[in-house]
Specification:
406 residues, globular, disordered C terminus, 13 helices, 13 strands, alpha/beta, Aminopeptidase, single chain
C-alpha cells in the first residue's frame, strides 16, 4: 500500500496523476513518511560535538537512538569489497507505516547518501519507489517495485537490492517514519519554500489532516499566499507530500514529490551547518527518536567529524531521469518505472566516483535502453571514465578512417 497527499475537495478528477502505463485514483490516507532523511545527516552533525567516551555514554543514556545491527558480511549485502575507502555510501529509507514505533513497511522513499571525505562533497540520490527491479532472495529472484524489498526483507534485502542493481558497496542504512518529521523541522527553525498558487490548496489539505490527527486547530497553520514562504514542520511535511500538481520548477507527479523532498532536505542541511553548538542538544533530541540505523555511535562520530571539518557541499539527483525511461512491460506489479538498470548504474558511479553530474553523463555518452525484462537481467558492468574515453576515441578514429577511405 502506498500513502499519498490529500487531494483538496473539488480537485480529485482534475489533478489525478497519470503514470507511464496506468492511471490510478488514490484513497485518502494518513501522512506518509517522506524521506526527510535528515535524521542521519543531522545526527552526524549533532553528535560531532560529543567526541569523548563520556559523551557517547551520555548520548546512549539520554537519547532514544534506535540502533539495529545488520550483517557485516559483504556478500550477504550484494557486494565483494569497498570500492573507495574515502567514499562512504549509506542507504536512507522513508517507511510507509501508521505505527509511530515501527520501522517496518514499504520503503516508499529511497535515497543513497554518498559522503566523499576527499573532495568534501555529499551526494544525495533519490531512487524512484516504482522502479521495476530484480530482488534477489535466497532461493529465487522476484521482479517487483524496488520498495517491496524493504517490506519483505527489511533493510538488509533493501540494501542488497540497491547494491545488486547499481553495483554499489552500501553496508549501512538509516530509516525514518513520518511521525516526528514536523518536530524535526521545527527544531531546525523551519524552511523557506517557493509555493505556487496550485500548491496552496494541496499544502492546506495536508495541514488540515495532520492537525486533525494531532488534535490541533489547523487555522494558524494554513497558507493563504503563494510566493516564498517560511514553513514550519507541519506545513513542510504537507508540502513534501504533494505530487498531483507541479512544483515551482514545473515538475509534477512522483518526480515533483522527490524534488520537493530533496529540496527540504537540502534546506535542513544548510540549517544544521549554521547552528551554534548550544543548539545541538535540542536538535538531537528531536531527531533521535525517529531514526533507526545500523551505524554505531563510533561510526556516526567518525563521519560527523569528517562532515563538519570539511563543511561539504550538497549535490542531489534522482534515478531515473525522464531521458532514459522506457515503455513498461506488462507485469503484475501495477504502475512501474522501467529503465536500463545497467545504464543507471553507470550514471550513479560517474556521479559518486568521478564527480560527473548525471545530465553531463547523458550528454557525453548518449542514452542506452536495454530491454532487460525481455532479454534477461545481468549485473551491471561499470565503465570508468578512462574506459569511456578510450571507447569514444576508438569510435572517432573508426569514423575518421571510414571518411578517409571514402
Amino acid at each position: 500500500m502506498e500513502n499519498d497527499e490529500i487531494i483538496p475537495e473539488g480537485q480529485e478528477n482534475s489533478s489525478a496523476e497519470k503514470t507511464h502505463n496506468t492511471a490510478k485514483t488514490k484513497k485518502r490516507r494518513k501522512p506518509r513518511g517522506f524521506v526527510v532523511v535528515l535524521a542521519i545527516i543531522a545526527s552526524l552533525c549533532v553528535l560531532a560535538v560529543i567526541i569523548t567516551a563520556a559523551g557517547i555514554i551520555y548520548v546512549k543514556k539520554n537519547f532514544n537512538f534506535k540502533y539495529n545491527e545488520i550483517t557485516s558480511e559483504p556478500e550477504e549485502l550484494g557486494f565483494e569489497e569497498v570500492k573507495d575507502d574515502e567514499i562512504v555510501n549509506i542507504a536512507l529509507f522513508g517507511i510507509d507505516t501508521k505505527d509511530p514505533e515501527s520501522f517496518k513497511g514499504r520503503s516508499d522513499s529511497i535515497m543513497i547518501l554518498s559522503i566523499n571525505k576527499t573532495n568534501d562533497k555529499i551526494k544525495l540520490i533519490s531512487v524512484m519507489r516504482d522502479s521495476f527491479v530484480p530482488i534477489d532472495r535466497d532461493e529465487w529472484t522476484d521482479l517487483n517495485k524496488i520498495n517491496a524489498a524493504y517490506a519483505s526483507g527489511g533493510p538488509e534485502l533493501a540494501i542488497k537490492t540497491l547494491n545488486n542493481i547499481f553495483a554499489l558497496d552500501i553496508s549501512e542504512y538509516a530509516t525514518v517514519n513520518f511521525y516526528g518529521m514536523a518536530d524535526i523541522i521545527d527544531a531546525m527553525g523551519g524552511v523557506d519554500v517557493q509555493i505556487t498558487d496550485a500548491e496552496i490548496a494541496m499544502v492546506n489539505a495536508g495541514v488540515k489532516e495532520q492537525c486533525s490527527y494531532l488534535g490541533k486547530d489547523s487555522g494558524p497553520y494554513l497558507i493563504s499566499e503563494s510566493g516564498m514562504q517560511h514553513l514550519n514542520g507541519i506545513q513542510a511535511v504537507s508540502y513534501s507530500r504533494i505530487r498531483y500538481v507541479a512544483n515551482a520548477q514545473g515538475t509534477a507527479n512522483d518526480y515533483g514529490r522527490t524534488d520537493r523532498q530533496r529540496y527540504i532536505l537540502s534546506q535542513l542541511f544548510k540549517s544544521v551547518k549554521s547552528k551554534s553548538k548550544s543548539e545541538y542538544i535540542s536538535l538531537i533530541k528531536a531527531v533521535s527518536p525517529h531514526c533507526e540505523t545500523s551505524l554505531s555511535y563510533t561510526q556516526i562520530l567518525s563521519l560527523a567529524v569528517d562532515v563538519l571539518i570539511g563543511s561539504p557541499a550538497l549535490e542531489e539527483s534522482r534515478v531515473p531521469f525522464d531521458d532514459y525511461i522506457m515503455k513498461a512491460p506488462q507485469t503484475n506489479a501495477g504502475a512501474i518505472l522501467y529503465y536500463d538498470l545497467n545504464y543507471a548504474a553507470n550514471i550513479i558511479h560517474a556521479f559518486i566516483y568521478e564527480d560527473i553530474k548525471p545530465e553531463d553523463f547523458i550528454t557525453q555518452n548518449g542514452i542506452e535502453e536495454n530491454d532487460w525484462y525481455r532479454n534477461g537481467y545481468t549485473k551491471p558492468k561499470i565503465i570508468s571514465q578512462e574506459e569511456r574515453n578510450k571507447q569514444n576515441s576508438g569510435s572517432s578514429e573508426t569514423q575518421s578512417g571510414t571518411a578517409s577511405a571514402q
